Amino acid sequence: MANPFGDAMGDEGPAASGSGSFVHSADSDSEILEGFLCPICKSDLRTPERLTVHVEQEHSEEQDLLKSLKEIFSFAKQGILSKGKKKPHDSQASDSAPQARGADSSGICPTAAASLNNPLLQPGNWQAIGCECDHLAYFKAVRNPRLERYASETNKLIIRLDKLLDGCPADPDGKKRHEQSKVPWIDGRLVKLCPSCAKSFGITRRQHHCRVCGSVMC
């Protein structure tokens, strides 16, 4: 399967071509839909930006729905950010730390007390802070689109796996037809080399289709 988290190539990248997927609304009795779907008319807008503009222009009377749509996109982004956070250190660890070597009963090290009289350590002799440059805005501009793309690609994989496993028959022929109905397979005659190792297919290197993306590999 190709890497779904590769760098986007502008408006013609994966998001614009429909690789990003996000299930916003689907009837419980119908098949699970895949894509950036309008919750009212079920149109696939391909990107979150187009979906937001579509709801604002075509369904402007549904202000509560537009607000919930923006909250869903924000929630998906926060879910990825929260995974990278670490737990704070235990405050009791610092309290139970052993006393510094060479310190007296008051806890003050004699060498540390002597260093306070060093003229080089006086605040008046400290070097002034130089020029500063804030790169936070650039960092957010680069990171936020990637987080949105990662969230959409992750949702697409979850949706396709759920569709493949739901109602999968036990017999091999029925299972193959079920998998092809959920994810279209690329014609193996059009692929001469394996995209992973760039080697030709043969008796010892057979063609296999990825059940998630439908591509051919050895």
TrEMBL record:
Domain FYVE-type: 188-218
Gene Ontology MF term list: zinc ion binding
Protein's name according to its UniProt entry: FYVE-type domain-containing protein
Taxonomy of the source species: Eukaryota, Metazoa, Ecdysozoa, Arthropoda, Hexapoda
Pfam family, one: FYVE
UniProt source species: Anopheles atroparvus (European mosquito)
InterPro entries, per the entry: Znf_C2H2_type, Znf_FYVE, Znf_FYVE-rel, Znf_FYVE_PHD, Znf_RING/FYVE/PHD
Superkingdom field: Eukaryota
Region (Disordered): 1-26, 81-105
Keywords associated with the record: Metal-binding, Zinc, Zinc-finger
